[in-house]
Specification:
about 325 residues; alpha/beta; 8-stranded parallel beta barrel; 8 strands; globular; binds phosphoenolpyruvate; binds magnesium ion; metal-binding
Length: about 325
């Protein structure tokens, strides 16, 4: 098996019936790129930038950020790098911001909500990203988008900083794709409208499941409700993928579900274009996908969406012989 994985390191991911999907990795720091390359990652599908802000006593400067983004882009040598803008709040705190305690942090002032209010923080990050964009294939995505209006505001700030940099004579790439995380049910439901304005979606199932099932992802006592295979989740994922494809956009997934061997046949069948997971899951996933026919998985996914329970879906997936 290890020998097989080694061979798969250099080849693109392909299903048994010849359909290409992209396997990327989730990273938290520039050092993590080593693992992505060692495991044959075709992209960085999620660069969580929170770690740049955590474990220090003040906000990271524009230059500190620029260097981190540039390093990742250069080391990926032109392969896509999806950088997620700051997603702080929820379970991730920044002591130096001194934010008031909230009753429901996961439903509170976090991620893009905070960035749209604290524009100083957001603009600094956007400038660092724009300056780094000429060193590779940068894609930017905003987390926790709940409304079109939030996306438009965030995009306007990005364009404003781009304009400023250009007028200062700073080089900025003209081919940066701009996308959003789909991790709030309202956004999944209106995916057809978002698809007209974004370049891509990345489905964040860690949060999408918690918000759809109303079950805190950190709370053990309700963990039985944390159900990736619930047909409700599969139908939402399907809606997002179909809406994107209708407009010619691509869809990735960067939640834990994307690297889960039981979910992969379903996601392939639902039409997911890009899977982003921990680096060590990439080669096993590539091997699994090479043994699956996409056409057959489409049938499987259609069946799964008609089922009543997550357990039935799991049994259905286990019944296929790869
Ligand atoms: C997600 O919500 O699925 C996701 C990838 O983001 P995070 O786990 O960082 O909230
Ligand atoms: Mg999330």
């Amino acid at each position: 098996q290890i020998e097989e994985w080694k061979k798969l390191k250099e080849v693109p991911t392909q299903s048994k019936d010849g359909v290409h999907v992209e396997l990327g990795a989730n990273i938290g720091t520039p050092n993590d790129v080593t693992g992505v390359l060692e495991n044959g990652g075709e992209a960085v599908g999620l660069y969580r930038t929170e770690f740049l802000y955590m474990g220090r006593s003040e906000l990271p400067s524009e230059d500190v950020q620029f260097n981190a983004y540039k390093t990742v882009l250069e080391r990926m040598e032109g392969k896509p790098v999806v950088v997620r803008t700051l997603d702080i709040g929820g379970d991730k705190e920044l002591p130096y911001l001194d934010l008031p305690k909230e009753m429901n942090p996961f439903l509170g002032f976090r991620a893009v909500r905070l960035c749209l209010e604290r524009q100083d923080i957001f603009r600094t990050q956007l400038r660092a990203l724009l300056r780094a964009s000429v060193y590779g294939n940068l894609r930017i995505m905003f987390p926790m988008i709940a409304t079109l209006d939030e996306f438009r505001q965030a995009k306007a700030l990005l364009l404003d900083e781009k304009q400023k940099l250009t007028s200062e004579g700073v080089q900025v790439s003209d081919s940066i794709q701009l996308g959003i995380m789909v991790e709030i049910p309202s956004t999944a439901v209106l995916a057809d409208q978002f698809a007209k304005e974004v370049d891509f979606f990345s489905i964040g199932t860690n949060d999408l499941i918690q918000y759809t099932m109303a079950a805190d992802r950190m709370n053990e006592r309700v963990s039985y409700l944390y159900q990736p295979y619930n047909p409700a989740i599969l139908r939402l994922v399907k809606m997002v993928i179909d809406a994107a494809h209708q407009e010619g956009r691509w869809v990735g997934m960067c939640g834990e579900m994307a690297g889960d061997a039981t979910a992969i046949p379903l996601l392939l069948g639902l039409g997911l274009d890009e899977f982003s997971m921990s680096a060590t899951s990439i080669l096993p996933a590539r091997s699994q996908i090479s043994r699956l026919s996409k056409a057959e998985m489409e049938q499987l996914a259609a069946k799964a969406m008609g089922m009543q329970t997550a357990q039935q879906v799991v049994e259905l997936v286990r019944s296929i012989d790869e």
